[in-house]
Specification:
It is flat, with a radius of gyration of 22 Å. By secondary structure, it is of the alpha+beta class. 20% of the residues are buried. The chain contains 4 helices and 9 strands, in the order H-E-E-H-E-E-E-E-H-H-E-E-E. Strand 4 and strand 5 form a beta hairpin. The N and C termini lie far apart (55 Å). The strands form 3 sheets. It has a 4-stranded antiparallel beta sheet with strand order 3-4-5-6. Strands 7-8-9 form a 3-stranded antiparallel beta sheet, with no helix packed on it. It has a two-stranded antiparallel sheet with strand order 1-2.
Length: 217
């Protein structure tokens, strides 16, 4: 009787485990049924380090925000003060909805060795299904590159700008290209010297999400 009871309990544990695996939530990012003005997906408080301010995320699912906060910590490690370089970091929360959250960081870098300074912009966007950082490949359908490069060059023409490349046009965005999100837009970031020598050399190329239907997921 005891052996039969143990066998039945083992089968119950197996069935529960199998059921849990089968019903595991799909965390793949998609814009399907996206509502830009949906309620905030996370709560944000501002924290401070020796190099400036940064966002700290909170939500009912702490596993998700733990991933987000870990990514921000890793980002901040890239801008630690050294003997010759110092940093001042500020940020703006640019999106916070049920699907994704995004922040744009502004980093002032000063080099005491040669007396120069420069501003660097960097963005981090998160999939709020799992709290992991979004890459371009998470936002776009497979083989998106050629169409995205086409619309980027089109924007340069609209802005009357010439890219600072040998061929006068972009040869392609990398899979890890810098960007941030707004609730209704996707914005590519080009820091000084990366795209144009117009004005201060920084360039932000915005795309309204509805204009990218066909290549976004």
């Amino acid at each position: 009787m005891k052996k039969l009871l143990l066998l039945l309990m083992s089968l119950m544990v197996f069935n529960l485990s199998f059921s849990a695996k089968k019903t595991a939530a799909d965390t793949t990012f998609t814009f399907q049924n996206f509502v830009p003005n949906s309620a905030n997906g996370v709560r944000v408080i501002e924290k401070t380090t020796t190099t400036g301010n940064y966002p700290y995320f909170m939500a009912s699912n702490s596993d998700i925000t733990s991933n987000m906060n870990k990514s921000v910590e890793n980002f901040l490690k890239e801008y630690k003060n050294t003997k010759t370089k110092s940093y001042k970091i500020s940020y703006e929360l640019t999106a916070n909805n049920a699907y994704f959250a995004s922040a744009l960081f502004k980093i002032l870098e000063k080099d005491s060795k040669d007396g120069t300074s420069k501003i660097i912009y960097d963005g981090i966007s998160f999939n709020l299904k799992n709290g992991k950082p979004l890459q371009l490949s998470d936002l776009f359908v497979p083989n998106y590159e050629s169409e995205l490069n086409r619309v980027i060059n089109q924007r340069f023409t609209e802005f009357g700008l010439t890219p600072v490349t040998a061929k006068g046009k972009f040869e392609g965005v990398s899979k890890k290209h810098n960007f941030y999100m707004e609730d209704e837009a996707f914005v590519l970031i080009y820091n000084q010297g990366e795209a144009t020598d117009f004005a201060d050399g920084h360039l932000f190329i915005p795309f309204v999400l509805r204009d990218l239907v066909g290549i976004i997921k």
